[in-house]
Amino acid sequence: YQRPPTINGLKIRQMIGLCAKHDVDEEALAEKVNFKDFLDRDVNAGFSGGEIKRSELLQLMAQEPDLMLFDEPESGVDMENITLVGKTIAALLEKDGAPELIKSKMQAKLNRTKMGLIITHTGYILDYVSADKGQVLFNGKLSCVSNPREILGCVGKSGYEECVRCMTELN
Asked: What average pLDDT does range 72-85 have in this prediction?
């Protein structure tokens, strides 16, 4: 688990303003990730793992990027926050960030205008995010591409080496 540094003197509200692609309502944005009470605190000062993740997601929401990298979004996050993190990542990846308009995972894939790379070891994030492909990085190279749930199931049952061998044979 890696902890980003505390930035004394820089408030979350200021950070959001610096990150924002255009003018944003910091309060409304923070409310989406249950972070309104933290807006006037220094960045990462005394934050738990879940609070740090919510702060990072708030910054991403303000940036509105077209391509996002999530490195182990479940790491250091309790079960209560994993749901919020997962749903927020799903919204960030959906067209116009409107999850309430998406009726199915297939429709979510078809409507997606944003892209993301999610690095996960647990797969918990797949309960919330509709991933198109799963890949295994093994011995320094991408070793197989397949359905993310199938890959995680194989790794969980037989380990990475056997998964790479098996998935390579199937594809």
From this structure: 89
Element (H or E) spanning 92, and its range?
helix 79-93
* Two tokens, residue 170: 């199937």
Which among 106, 149, 147, 103 has a CA at the least distance from the CA of 125? 149
With respect to residue 41, please indicate whether it lies within any of the assigned structural domains: yes
Instruction: With H, G, I as helix, E, B as strand and everything else as coil, classify residue 115.
Output: strand
- List the Cα angle 4/61/149 in 5-degree steps: 80
Same domain, residue pair 11 and 81: yes
Are 42 and 6 in contact, with CB atoms under 8 Å apart? yes
Q: Are residues 32 and 94 in the same domain?
A: yes
Q: Looking at the structure, tell me whether residues 98 and 45 fall in a common domain.
A: yes
Structure tokens at 19: 């990150």
Total domain count, the chain: 2
The tens digit of pLDDT for each residue in 129-144 reads 988 899 888 888 888 8
